[in-house]
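REQUEST ID: PR-0412
SUBMITTED BY: lab tech R.K.
PRIORITY: routine
TASK: structure prediction, single protein chain
INPUT:
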Amino acid sequence: MVSRRTALQIPAVAALTMASLTATAPAQADPSAQHIPGDVHLVRTLGGGEVAHTIRRGDGSWYPFNAIPGAPRAHYSNNLVSAIVGAEEHVMHNWYYGVGPYYQEYRYVIRHADGSWTEEAPVADGPTSDVDLAAVAGELHRVQRGGDAGTALTHRVRHADGTWTPWTAIPAQVDYDSDFAIAGAGGDLRLLTLNPPANGVLSSFVRHADGTWQQGPDVPFAPPSGATAEAVDIAQVGTELHAVVVGSDGGLYHAALRSTGWTRFHEVASQTGAPGGTVSQFSITASRGVLHVAIVTSESRLLHTVRAGDGRWQLFGDVDEATTLAVAWTGLSIAGS
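STATUS: complete
OUTPUT:
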């Protein structure tokens, strides 16, 4: 069994009031919402085309959720992803309108360092059944699953001047109902694929700065609970690559790649305390040498925890209470700087 460590107490959270979540929110944010290095940004989708945004400051306080301005008229949105490159947050998601005629589009917005938002031209080519974003050496990398069978992985890069490279093939694939995740590690892009979930391993790949791909060793997933892996996310924290997996039991599991290889996956709740219910959605990111994990439980609770550089975890904190969020949101993505 994984040993239980003493968990850090979650920092005090500032008392906040509920901000307007209407689509008419001003494009220019209050100066207090300017990006500060070390901030962690969290976005969530509502049932329509609306996406809400909040910030966790380095002292542990949260800002109220605000709607990203210019929400499309949509019945629902999904496939929400985000990444911070420099001082800018990049957010993408699918949105759908299902009445006369059925319509779908891909939305791409950028939050600038001063808190203002701009909408960019969509960058979706073909079906976008799954997408992930990562910052690598000051550029935005995007990996997408698609193709005729929905299993091919392709990759492109957004340069600092806003131009995109063409799509290129990745020498890896995932099943249509499987999962993958990417993260920047210095000048490299890391990729973990979960394919298929029942085989007990995750496959690892690295894209080097020269554009070449290299396959790494498999990552075994064999927790004492006997759960199989169903979803994965990764983040580079200092010199270590961290992986968080949701198991078939709804539990959350963590492992890290060190110079000696991968650690064994252990259940996060053994050190954070039980979140209540199973994990239905999750997202992880790195910021200032620590790992941030956000989850939504089967009880519709939005929770957050931090793993410090010494390996200790904070107790889960309730983000809804900290931000006074009073509506049920769905999709989830967290990004750090």
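NOTES: Helices lie at 269-272, 319-323.
REVIEWED BY: pending
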